Amino acid sequence: MTVKSAANAAESEERFSALLTNANAVRAITSAVEGTIGPKGLDTMLVDKYGDVVITNDGVTILNLMEVNHPAAKMIINMAKAQQNEIGDGTTTATVLAGGLVSAGANQVVKGVPVARVIEGLRIGVRHALQALQASARAVDDLASPVFYQVAMVAGRENNDIADLVVEAAQMVGLEKLREKGFWLADTIVAEEGAVNEVFQGVIVNKEPMNRHMPKDLSEVKVLVVDDALEPEEVEDEALGTDTGFARYLQLQEEFRANLLKIRELGINLVLVDRGVSDLAEEFLTDWGVMVIQRTANKELVQAAEHTGARPVKRTGLKKNLDDLSKFVGTARRAYLDEKLEHLRILDGAGKPTATVLVGAATSEVVGERERIAKDAASSVQAAVLKGVVPGGGAVELAVARQVEKVRQDTRGMAAYGVECVVEALNRPFTQIVQNAGFNPLEKLGDVIAAQVEEQKDSLAIDCDNGEVADMLARGIVDPAMVKIHALKAAGEVAEAILRIDTIIKKRENEQKDGEIEF
Fold first, then answer.
1. Residue 161 counted as domain residue
2. Is 340 among the domain residues?
3. Are 263 and 281 in contact (CB under 8 A)?
4. Which of 72, 147, 290, 352 has the lowest tally of Cβ within 10 angstroms?
5. Tens of pLDDT along 109-160?
6. Which range of residues forms the domain containing residue 402?
7. C-beta neighbour count of 442 within 10 angstroms
8. Distance between CA 454 and CA 468 in Å, rounded?
9. Alpha-carbon distance 130 to 425, whole Å?
10. Coil, strand, or helix at residue 159?
């Protein structure tokens, strides 16, 4: 390298220092998760300062737990979290795509392409890629189709027991429920150490009855859900010191006893309470053979109410007459305490149908990972119901990249280099899957592209067991289109935001001392 070229390189590096710093941070984040992608992906061990260990193959878990300080890296992590919250799967794909877009974009800028032109081309490329992905989706409307099992197997990292559970749960819930806004099949997943894998029509409440004298097994269940404390209304301590206040206290105690008697008269034998239960209520309800669960988690309270058809009531609502209060009561065929797993099961409620997937784990160390795998599989199955499926194994991204390459040829000016960044990023999932499987990614990339062009199929990729070109659809390797579409959209947005950063400035500390006035 000549002195002049070295000087030019130094000047270029200084000029694009913010961009290169951000790109390097994004590469570091991407490298932390890309080794987990594909059927041959490996696990990552995360260790904290106390020596606690988490071993996982789940991209968003790795990103959530790893120590990160760089702002650009945090942007990628936030994007992955958004992908997880919105879709429930595809965080690793989104991260790999974002890393590819940022890396390719930074390289083009360093070569002399203006950032504005790179971003212009990136937008063009992503827009056409999203259209191509949507066009590639295959709709699947029959829950009995083997496609859903295949989706669950891919997302569930080839755990066939989990795939069976998730598909059975989806069939139990039904298409209408899976398409219902606000319903997440992943919320039906519960993992327990020592549990036996099963799916049942009902919900779990992770609590035991208030005391051992309450019944443990109920049939023909009538359920009251109290979204409040089951206690008398309170009188302030200061008021108790007055005759009027004490009289009010005695009145509220008497009203509370009368309200408890309504529970008995309505034949209610299961009461779920959001907060605490008074000693008086506990004594009465125990004598009447009522099972009471206090301090129930809000999520479980809502699930139980929906499944049994109960309408949550406040403690003041217990003042209603019997006819009105009966409209708030739900029903179920059975409710019983699983003493081994220490939770309550409510089965065959009269409200909305729902399923619970109980995933067993041999040890406490693998409970979390088994639950994450099952939730990924459930999210993918639901996404497949909503938007269909596309070929997996990186096949559809390669096919889409070829279409974007045609757009690049028709794009005028330097924006074409931005479109090229999208082509390069779309190749990344395939090349990483192949590399993780132990094959030469460049060689296999050429083989697959040639085969796709020759056979006019967007489903051709590499069999990671033998390295041969194979039809992913025929092999049952499919991904939800919704996961891919959202991942690319999110990756394009965060890559553009990072590439637009020209300068990094540390914010001034703006802390005021107590009593100090800032002018």
1. no
2. yes
3. no
4. 352
5. 988 899 999 999 999 999 999 999 999 999 988 999 999 999 999 888 888 9
6. 15-138+389-499
7. 11
8. 16
9. 13
10. coil
